[in-house]
Backbone:
């Protein structure tokens, strides 16, 4: 059974024409309308998939139907998304996988891309030491990290797969080989982000017509190169992507589009080599968990800033009676904004790849520390100044990095019949990643998630480029357990820096406001990573702007790339939800 959340025809695109500006689908009429507070259980079932595209959700459901585990179905969904939503994610990118059992065991796998071993902190600086303009960096091999999704999938499958590896590829291969219908959203991205989608002759041939216009919505698109690539990996395994002739050719492709550059010692340095690809490792990491109002929230730790930031935003608000305030109260949005500002100040200073930098995760998630940080929030007045705190273990003095522009990504969730959940966020970073293609898929631009500036005022930036390092992420695949220890919510989102806020809002919506997760996701978006509070245009927040300003906030309306997917347990059954701003869909086996 497949339920479209919105007809694709109902989703116009309001993408910015400027490729470096945030690209954002518009808020739809349903965003911000928490009218249905009671969870809709009409479409509930024991097992469920929620993804950003109905064909991808159905791919996961088909695998569940065939007896696959949540992990199997999540891998099939990830592969299908590569075909039908190429602007967002795929095997040319990376991701984070969080698996939770019904009984409360949580594990995470880090499939984040890595910089080539030859990369150095000067990677994104020109000869004069000035950071390269973003568009210049993104369209070259400088932005491409070693893709992580396939080794992530292989590790997850080794641990929790039930069906043969090759079976997981079947739905994606069928979509790529036989074709799929181009959605208005894909068409819109192809038109608006031509500098990336048409950066490579392969992209032009696949996605554009002779007159240069993007293949229209509603037409059938076949991607035989991707069908062939997926067929080979299905048969020969993930290693065949990383090693041997494929790994070698992939490294050569990336090196061929990487500008020559000189490293610190004046020697040529940098570009990707076959050993970088062959040596890629997906890493099992310790999940980051914390308790918010007796609920246990678990997610992805470094190199993601996701779990620490989601948790900080929530925990700092614990002393407030958010339920009494409700989502129509400007005071709620004010305290939510200031909690974000406090959390993002810490994120900016401390979060990076913990294999390279000491990240004080225990200090940042310590309940006493966060309670103290939360005491800074005044329910009547906006903070005039927000600074990073001093969590335990934060001995080293660091500088803030630059916050990159982001906009790709897909989150999906799967619950299987055994009650195991997978919450997986997959990304090529920006729309169509670097725009460079290989074997029918786009190569990521994840390395632009590093801070271009390696140091400020003589202090090093935690998220600076280093050889073999993983750029800091915002992706926040999460699972939530209720006070009885039963899994109750599985959630994540796309949208760059806004991701932790979307996840925190969904959790507050469910726990504090007693909304269905679908209504919680649909609540208006407010994002306050710094001193400006951005509000989603065309929502109930517009009417609250004056109240927020009266409390001392600087407020600006801005379209933001919100796209969340989730599932919620209601009366023992799982109900899926997708963002009304997206083409997302829920499928049951
Ligand atoms: N690359 C981003 C990250 O890992 C996500 C991109 C996006 O969702 O816009 O944080």
Residues:
């Amino acid at each position: 059974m497949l339920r479209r959340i919105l007809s694709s025809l109902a989703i116009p695109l309001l993408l910015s024409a400027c490729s470096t500006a945030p690209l954002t689908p518009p808020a739809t009429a349903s965003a911000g309308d928490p009218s249905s507070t009671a969870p809709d259980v009409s479409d509930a079932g024991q097992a469920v998939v929620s993804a950003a595209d109905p064909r991808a959700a159905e791919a996961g459901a088909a695998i569940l139907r065939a007896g696959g585990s949540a992990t199997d179905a999540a891998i099939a969904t990830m592969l299908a998304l590569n075909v039908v939503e190429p602007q967002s994610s795929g095997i040319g990118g990376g991701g984070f996988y969080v698996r939770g059992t019904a009984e409360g065991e949580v594990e995470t796998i880090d499939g984040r891309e890595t910089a080539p071993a030859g990369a150095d902190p000067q990677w994104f600086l020109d000869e004069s030491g000035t950071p390269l303009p973003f568009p210049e960096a993104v369209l070259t091999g400088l932005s491409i990290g070693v893709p992580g999704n396939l080794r992530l999938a292989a590790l997850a499958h080794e641990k929790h797969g039930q069906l043969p590896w090759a079976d997981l590829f079947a739905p994606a291969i069928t979509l790529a080989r036989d074709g799929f219908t181009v959605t208005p959203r894909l068409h819109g991205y192809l038109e608006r982000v031509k500098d990336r989608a048409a950066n490579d002759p392969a992209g032009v041939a696949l996605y554009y017509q002779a007159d240069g216009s993007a293949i229209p919505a509603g037409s059938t698109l076949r991607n035989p190169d991707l069908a062939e690539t997926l067929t080979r990996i299905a048969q020969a395994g993930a290693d065949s992507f990383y090693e041997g002739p494929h790994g070698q050719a992939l490294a050569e492709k990336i090196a061929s589009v990487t500008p020559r550059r000189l490293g610190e010692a004046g020697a040529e340095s940098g570009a990707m080599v076959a050993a970088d690809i062959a040596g890629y490792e997906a890493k099992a990491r310790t999940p980051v968990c914390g308790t918010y109002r007796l609920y246990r929230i678990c997610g992805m730790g470094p190199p993601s800033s996701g779990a620490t930031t989601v948790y900080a935003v929530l925990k700092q608000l614990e002393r407030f009676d958010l339920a009494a305030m409700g989502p129509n109260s400007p005071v709620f949005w004010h305290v939510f904004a200031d909690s974000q500002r406090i959390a993002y100040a810490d994120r900016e200073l401390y979060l990076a790849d913990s294999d390279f930098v000491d990240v004080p995760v225990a200090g940042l998630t310590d309940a006493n520390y966060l309670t103290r940080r939360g005491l800074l929030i005044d329910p009547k007045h906006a903070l005039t100044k927000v600074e990073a705190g001093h969590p335990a273990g934060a001995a080293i003095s660091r500088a803030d990095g630059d916050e990159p522009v982001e906009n790709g990504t897909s989150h999906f969730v799967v619950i299987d019949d055994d009650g195991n959940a997978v919450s997986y966020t997959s990304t090529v970073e920006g729309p169509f990643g670097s725009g460079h293609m290989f074997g029918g898929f786009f190569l990521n631009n994840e390395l632009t998630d590093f801070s271009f500036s390696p140091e400020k005022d003589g202090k090093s930036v935690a998220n600076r480029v280093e050889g073999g390092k993983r750029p800091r992420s915002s992706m926040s695949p999460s699972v939530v357990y209720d006070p009885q220890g039963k899994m109750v919510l599985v959630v994540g989102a796309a949208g760059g820096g806004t991701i932790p806020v979307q996840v925190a809002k969904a959790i507050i919506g469910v726990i504090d406001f007693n909304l269905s997760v679908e209504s919680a996701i649909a609540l208006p978006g407010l994002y306050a990573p710094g001193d400006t509070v951005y509000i989603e245009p065309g929502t109930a927040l517009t009417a609250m702007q004056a109240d927020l300003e009266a409390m001392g906030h600087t407020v600006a309306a801005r379209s933001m790339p919100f796209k969340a997917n989730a599932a919620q347990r209601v009366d023992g059954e799982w109900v899926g939800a997708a963002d009304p701003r997206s083409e997302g869909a829920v499928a049951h086996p």
In short: Confidence is low (pLDDT under 50) at residues 1-41. The longest strand covers residues 487-494. Residues 406-409, 427, 429, 446, 449, 473-475, 494-496, 561 surround glutamic acid (CB under 6 Å). The chain has one domain: 1-385+399-589.
